[in-house]
Amino acid sequence: MSNPSTASPRLSARQVLPAIAGIYISQTVITAMTTQALPSLLRDAGASLEVAGLTALLWIPWGIRFLWAPAVERWRLPAGRLERRSRTLVLAGQWLIAAILLGLGLAGLGGYFFLDGHAGWILGGLLLAALVAATSDVASDGFTVDQLASRQRGWGNVAQVGGSYVGAMLGAGGFLLVAGRFGWPWALLAASLAIVLLSVPMLPLREPPRARALAAQGHRPGLLHALRRPQVQIGLTLLLLSSLGVRLTLGMFGPFMLDRGMSLEQVGWLFGSLHIVAGLTGAVLGGVLVRAAPGWRAVWIALALKAAVFALLSVAAAPASLAGLTVLLGLLFAVLGCLWVALYSALMGIASPLQAGVDFTIFQSADALLAVACGVAGGWLAQHLGYAFCFGLAAGLTLIALLAVRRQAGAERLSSSTQVEATHGR
């Protein structure tokens, strides 16, 4: 239960949920373009799986943004003042990303950039867009944690994760479809327009001030404040264990289906239709799961489902038909949607109200660094040991995560029971 003296006023759920969805759709458009669309485009052009896996290096801005997150958070929550500046930071970031994509697309249409001869410039532009997105996401995370009360986090995380799946649809499937039919410059222009439109729900919002008791503390957001907290240390460990399997294989789903006989356009439809429907369905189920089994209990249940699907993919990687593999990928997308809702809900409960943006950014940065390492490793493993080995390894790693999270869930329930008994015993 929060202390009334430190409880800050919040916007209504009716205002917050559309804004959160728009924010996370925009952020995920960039990550999906770089981590899902690009590997498929490169593989379609004849690149090796190792080269396709190297696109995971574009996760680096998301992995190292914790270094400047405290500076962003200090500007978002000025010391000794009641105001919050999340809205300004988020909108500036979204519009700058849109401008970068617009510039790249216009340069391509004007004949200044060609994919075969100027790939370095195009990737550099996307890297800059990713850097801006990663920076503004610090404010996005702070805004989300600040404005969602604990009872709203389940459905708030549905909007957050569901928004991410819509962003994945636009940045991966949608980008591939437009690029395959009209060319990559038009795909960039379409992405730019989408990001501008997605900023609209945030425009009319006016953030309420912080509680005076919080502002009066004059806290200076910093990394050490977060890393010294046992809750953050436990959260980091469990997050990395829970994400290890999927980060090892995420960039290989598109190349896997291409190698099994799908065309690039079919892979675009796979990410643009099945991915979004299954992911959103899983996210909604995740919201229900979090309400029924709050905290880390929801996480270990989702991990059990993820391990089972990866095991089925490992067994079916060679003999299964395209239709069977498509069904399994759909199941995996649904389970991942459920898992992210559960994970984000558990991690938001750990973030400190004094520097929510920094705390939650540390979690996401750690996950992004894991994605860089595992994306490159996944490409190497798939190239040399096969897709079946990759999926089987992901299943085994998920089982290890399941055991660790279930232990934490048990400790959480024991602590809660002890607190209840102490309260009744007074």
UniProtKB/TrEMBL annotation:
Keywords: Membrane, Transmembrane, Transmembrane helix, Transport. Its main location: membrane. GO terms for cellular component: membrane. InterPro entries: AmpG_permease/AT-1, MFS, MFS_trans_sf. The keyword Membrane applies. It comes from the Bacteria. SUPFAM superfamilies: MFS general substrate transporter (SSF103473). GO terms for molecular function: transmembrane transporter activity. It is a multi-pass membrane protein. The chain crosses the membrane at residues 16-35, 47-68, 89-115, 121-140, 161-180, 186-205, 234-257, 269-290, 297-316, 322-344, 356-380, 386-405. It is found in: Membrane. The keyword Membrane applies. PANTHER family: MAJOR FACILITATOR SUPERFAMILY DOMAIN-CONTAINING PROTEIN 3 (PTHR12778:SF10), SOLUTE CARRIER FAMILY 33 ACETYL-COA TRANSPORTER -RELATED (PTHR12778). This is MFS transporter.
